[in-house]
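QA checklist item 7 of 12: single-chain prediction sanity check.
[x] sequence parsed
[x] length recorded as 297
[x] structure emitted
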Amino acid sequence: MDTIRSMDKTVISAMRWMMTAGLLAAALPAAAQYRADFVPPELEGIGIEQKLGAQLDLDLPFRDERGQRITLGDLLADGKPAILTLNYYGCPSLCGIQLLGLLDALRQMEWTIGERFRVITVSFDPNESADLATAKRDTYLAEYDRKGAMSGWRFLTGPRESIHALCRSVGFKYKWVPATKEWGHDAALIFISPKGRVTRYIGGVAFEPEVLRLSLVEASAGKVGTLWDRIFLTCFHYDPASGRYQATAMRMMQVGGGTTAVLLGAALLTLHLRDAARRRRSAAMQGSAVPGESSAA
């Protein structure tokens, strides 16, 4: 176990360099020489089909880090939204890069895993063990270094049937590549509501903390976050191309029109109440003046 943890720490360090090298390589002009529509045979049939609104089967059995039976329903029972990641723990590259990118974003967030949301990492390799899941959990939580996060970020393994059912329900397509002896797959964060519905996908390996937070507010239907977050999400929508929430003119006009109507209504109500109060004072003054005028006569 200690050997696995030591290897994971070395991998995390290496992943940081790989992410930097990858970004530099992506900028090389030579990349333009490749056909945009070319897909290597190893990658055919791999990808992520977004299934927004899909309902997960919360009764699918998995195993937690101790090898105990657990379901997604068990993890969502406390009513918190979740970030689901599909990885395999023996992955030599992409999985580690994605989890490192998620870790870096989570460390920048004010919210702590387990308090307002959960992270659920599920291995899609049915041959991986609970011991390996434990080693991964301990490594990433040691890097995260916040109290109370142990129960908030879970690393699961499971039988082939549960893994296939979960991946199908979220549109995650992967396959074994014999030539490289690795699993071919894409990377994405999948946001899940407390009831187990898919609410958002964010692809890639680098993530903005604010986008994660707003996506969790969206997944919770406003049960976490502030009033301003809910107003913001009314006016903005997530743009997968840019990885950001972009303003929607129609929504802003609707919210602006609604706000104007509320303010106008409040102003008219205030004027009405002031006028009614003034009439009551005037009537009271006139009423009190009648007896005095009669006695004087």
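[x] summary fact logged: The radius of gyration is 28 Å.
[ ] second reviewer sign-off
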